[in-house]
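Forum > Structural Biology > Help requests

Title: Can anyone predict the 3D structure of Aminotransferase?

Hi all, first post here. I have the sequence for Aminotransferase but no way to get a structure on my laptop. I'd be grateful if someone could post the structure tokens.
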Amino acid sequence: MTLSHRITHIIGTGGDGWGLFYKARAMVEAGQPVTELTIGEHDIRTDPSILAAMDRAARGGHTGYATIPGTDGLRDVVAARVQARTGVSTTRANVLITPGGQSGLFAAHHAVCDEGDRALFIDPYYATYPGTIRGVGAVAVPVPARAEDAFQPRAADLAAAAPGARSLLVNTPNNPTGAIYARATLDGIAQVCTDHDLWLISDEVYDTQVWEGDHLSPRALPGMADRTLVIGSMSKSHAMTGSRIGWIVGPEEAIARLAALAIHTTYGVPGFIQDAAQFALRQGIGMEQEIAAPFARRRAIALEILKRQTTIRALPPQGAMYMMLDIRQTGLSGEAFAESLLDTHMIAVMPGESFGQAPAGHIRVALTVDDARFTEAFQTLVDHATALAI
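Reply #1:
Sure, ran it for you. Structure tokens for Aminotransferase below:
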């Protein structure tokens, strides 16, 4: 029997980008002491108060089919949070609750792309982006953002790729680079979307992890609210990765259509998880800052270590829980360096090539182990690069 082209081509010809991660995980399962600086998984667990709220909701009976497009209480809290932070009028009618940000990305592309449509995204990209686009039957079209531009996409490059496209996916604060798109960058993106009648899908799951400058949601730019779908999530902001809860914010008609899609796909998110998310968001910015604080500390640790060497070049990340390091002076590709580091020192990082062509010759380091272990591993990484460059 033959499977559909859509499902068999989700993973492109270059693989899914996770090969080194799978290798490191196999080593861990075999009992080897690998330091994993690969994925954006917090080294702390979900706050006990959030788990207690989840338990109360479940034991209180909120375990049946939950309301689609989400409980009124959670949608109201999300809407209020978005409106307060962006200044854009937002109500529950603008909010769909999804099983995590990844589900939101998939649903958003279903909403705006038909079979065979061209869907643009920025390279470097989170590893699931092209597969998500291919999974809805669209054609994934990368547009490069260059290291020499601090990984800020150029409006001219977007405009050149835009004719005939239906959508553009952006991510700021950015995974994997740590870049936060400047106002000028976002103005250029908005102009291209307006000129070429593109939907903008804005992945903003790292909006609570801002180290330099300010995060600006492109939905807040003039004329963009009616053509923007914003993806949000509790995974990064509240260390709720396994709870699988996020949202899409967009125009009322789009949200209503997306609710119909949810009925025919996910059938919503468990009510007790929605109640826990509502509780977590009501704790305000203090809880978000507490969860983000370890990544700010480790960023500072890494930057201090980098000051004492000349082999690795890096743009200080402005946001998110990662650093993108240029290791080309070692003479190795990102993939070869990551393999060497893992084999020699049992430290796992992600090759830049896992995230597209633009970050070739780079590696991505996740700031996701405790401070002492991170300091030791990062210093070892730098020493390894220095030795290779000699």
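The mean pLDDT is 96. The longest strand covers residues 165-171.
Shout if anything looks off.
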